[in-house]
Design a protein that fits this description.
With 177 residues, this protein is α+β, with helices and mostly antiparallel strands. The chain has a domain at 14-128: Aminopeptidase. It has 6 helices and 7 strands; from the N terminus they run αβαααβββαβαββ. The chain has a 7-stranded mixed sheet with strand order 1-2-3-4-5-7-6, with helices on both faces. The radius of gyration is 17 Å and the shape is globular. The structure holds coenzyme A. Coenzyme A is lined by residues 34, 38, 101-103, 108-109, 113-114, 132, 134, 138-141, 143-144, 147. Coenzyme A binds next to helix 2, strand 4, helix 5, strand 5 and helix 6.
Length: 177
């Protein structure tokens, strides 16, 4: 049993929920900052900014939100600010790719990323496996995904115009109920 005194000391909850249109500006900003911080040292600041400006603009994020084959999630702090953003896409064959998982740097190592990952898994109950693409050199993300059961199944040229760079495709089985 958890005593009331212990409960009172629990940290303020970050709530993971389905993304809505109101979250678009925050998600776009978080994604742009995260891409620049993560990928500038790997693929260069100019390429990173070009890709991010093209793919992460609010109108692109809003269009994805309206796409029935994509599911988007945010992590909301008690003050209403957005601490994380994830998006998974189902293709025509029913295969699911985790296209994005980004948390604010202040949340690194807190377990929030794992909670968001599990929210994505739960939303895809019944799907046999889930895959993702991560640019080679993003060692923190690769370590995170390995820790959560993903394995590298393929190495291929990075998508989104990051010419000359490679990506890993990682995949993990999803548990059946
Ligand atoms: C990827 C991300 C969601 C993971 O969340 P996180 O809270 O940082 O992950 P965790 O701290 O639980 O796990 C990261 C692991 O990598 C390890 N790590 C950190 N830097 C590392 C490095 N340079 N090389 C190898 N491992 C590293 C950490 O020690 C930790 O492992 P441990 O728990 O065994 O100590 C988060 O870092 C993020 O948003 N990154 C920027 C966006 C991004 O790259 N998203 C993925 C795109 S596909």
């Amino acid at each position: 049993m958890i005593a009331g005194a212990s409960l009172a000391r629990l940290p303020a909850m970050i709530r993971i929920r389905a993304m809505t249109g109101k979250d678009v500006p925050s998600a776009s900003r978080l994604l742009g900052e995260s891409w620049r911080r993560t990928y500038s040292p790997i693929i260069g600041a100019e390429t990173t900014a070009r890709i991010s400006d093209e793919y992460h603009a609010p109108h692109r994020i809003a269009a994805e939100l309206a796409d029935d084959n994509k599911m988007s999630f945010v992590a909301e702090r008690p003050d209403g600010s957005i601490a994380g953003y994830a998006m998974a896409k189902m293709d025509a064959t029913g295969d699911v790719m985790l296209e994005r998982l980004h948390i604010d740097k202040s949340e690194f190592g807190t377990g929030l990323a794992a909670d968001m990952l599990h929210a994505v898994f739960a939303a895809h109950a019944g799907i046999p496996s889930i895959a993702l693409e991560v640019i080679e050199g993003n060692d923190r993300a690769i370590a995170f995904y390995r820790k959560h059961g993903f394995e590298v199944v393929e190495r291929r040229p990075a998508s989104h115009g990051a010419e000359g760079h490679s990506s890993f495709i990682m995949r993990r089985l999803l548990p059946r109920a």
